[in-house]
Amino acid sequence: MGFRDDFVWGGASASYQVEGAAAEDGRGPSVWDMFCREPGRILDGSSGDTACDHYHLYQKDVNLMKEIDYKAYRFSIAWPRIIPGGDGKLNEKGLDFYDRLLDSLAAADITPYATLFHWDYPYALFRRGGWLNPDSPKWFADYVSVVAKRLGDRLPYIFTYNEPQCFIGLSYDNTEHAPGIHFPIWDTLHMLHHALLGHGLAVQALRSIAPKTQIGYAPTGSAHYPATDSAADREAARKAYFAVEERPFWSVSVWSDPIFLGRYPEELLKKYGQYMPPIGQDDMKIISEKLDFLGQNIYNGSPVRSDGKGGYEYPKRKTGYAFTAAKWPVTPEALYWGPKFLQERYGMPLYITENGLSCQDTVSVDGKVHDPARIDFLRRYLRELRRASEDGVDIRGYFHWCVTDNFEWAKGYTDRFGMVYCDFETQERILKDSAYWYRDIIRSNGKDL
Ligand code: GCO
């Protein structure tokens, strides 16, 4: 019992958060490059211009991953590095970088899991209307075809998008993320539909160009769990997990039902149907092209209880509850109930594509980085994930977010999520205590949790 023998242990990153080299070798600007220039958008006034300089230091990073004994590395490919204008002319030098990275991973025997889009949307396409433009699904699929042609035979696993909840919801509804412009619901619903269509067209392109590649998707969402073990609370949590609440773009079902069930959730149509764009005859078929697995990013959830009337409510968290440096609640149950509910509804093999926390990590006087809170957090969460696996949930792997500390979007460099400490001025890396702990967990395949 425990995790399956071939369980995939790894860590994750995203291009804009680690690569740096923002203006090098022909990379075009993304919405994030522009957003970071606007005063007040990023907490510490920083940008991903240099980040962890992974573009140049990737070999060093792969060596560190090897030291931790990673089986796999989840990274993202920067669209504007491959096609600087978003659509049209290719940039060979950008593709060369991923070639080098893949060579280095292969030499270290670390399996690549590539995400095709982790938010660095080409600025040139934004100027043409971005996800509102009816051609936007095709732009994405064309970019994916380029990647598939050049790198497909070396990419055994691919995720189309990372967290569409964020690149539409946090970017165009809330304005915390680039480009940070609020649009009304009738426009954001158009973006939703176009993004889903882009995913479907990309899957079709991948199937024809890289038939051996297995394809998934990596959305997110708060993973609700029952406040008690009663049947009523379980049912309440299940309902809440897939509900379409006031902020529809944060919902799990809005982004996953169309893909895995071929339809939009009833509740979305009931609440916002009047604002939905026209849906073409084949659209839902394209959107629900069969995938091989579901990736889910799970950081936390909320306890849910029955309201006694067939509905649900969120009880107040206990006073003084545990939270991380980013002030996110510590809720290990999310890694049991999230996978369980997802499997029930979508019946897909599952990867946890991101999980982790930010801590106030510093280099101690002994030159090391002691992060006991990360070890405790991960132990608690991974025990819950193991319990889900033992209860029959088909969990294939786990990617810790993230390898090195990096550019944490609107928080700049003020949050440290890595297992590897990064000094952003000198680019020195130090394995934190949690990295050594994780290595031992990997070696025991989770038995020592
Ligand atoms: C996300 C992204 C990551 C973040 C991480 C910590 O989930 O928001 O995928 O890029 O850095 O989640 O916030």
Brief account:
The protein has 449 residues and is of the alpha/beta class. The protein is built from 16 helices and 13 strands.
Report on the architecture of this protein.
By secondary structure, the chain is α/β, with parallel strands linked by helices. It has one domain (8-443): Glycosidases (TIM Barrel). It contains 16 helices and 13 strands. An eight-stranded parallel beta sheet has the order 5-4-3-2-1-11-10-7. Strands 6-8-9 form a three-stranded mixed beta sheet. The radius of gyration is 21 Å and the shape is globular. It starts with 7 loop residues before the first strand and ends in a 6-residue tail after the last helix. The model has no long low-confidence stretch (mean pLDDT 98). The structure holds D-gluconic acid. D-gluconic acid binds at residues 14, 17, 162-163, 166, 220, 297, 354, 401, 408, 417. One of its GO terms (biological process) is cellulose catabolic process.
Please describe the structure with a list of short key phrases separated by commas or semicolons:
binds D-gluconic acid, alpha/beta, TIM Barrel, 39% helix, eight-stranded parallel sheet, 13 strands, globular
Say how many strands there are.
Answer: 13
Structure annotation, total helices: 16
The averaged pLDDT comes out at: 98
Share of residues in strands: 5-15%
| Bound compounds | D-gluconic acid
What is the CATH architecture term? Answer: Alpha-Beta Barrel
Described by strand count, sense and barrel closure, the largest sheet is: 8 strands, parallel
Shape: globular
Total domains, how many? Answer: 1
Q: Between the first and last Cα atoms, what is the distance in angstroms?
A: 13 Å
CATH class, please? Alpha Beta
Spatial order of the strands in the main sheet? 5-4-3-2-1-11-10-7
Radius of gyration: 21 Å
| CATH H-level superfamily | Glycosidases
The structure class reads alpha/beta
* Named CATH topology: TIM Barrel
Proportion of helical residues: 25-40%
Q: Low-confidence runs (pLDDT<50, min 5 residues)?
A: none
Order of helices and strands: EHHHEHHEHHEHHEEHHHHEEEHEHEEEH
InterPro entries: GH (IPR017853), GH_1_N_CS (IPR033132), Glyco_hydro_1 (IPR001360), Glyco_hydro_1_AS (IPR018120), Glyco_hydro_1_beta-glucosidase (IPR017736)
Active site: 163 (proton donor), 354 (nucleophile)
Keywords: Carbohydrate metabolism, Cellulose degradation, Glycosidase, Hydrolase, Polysaccharide degradation
Family: Belongs to the glycosyl hydrolase 1 family.
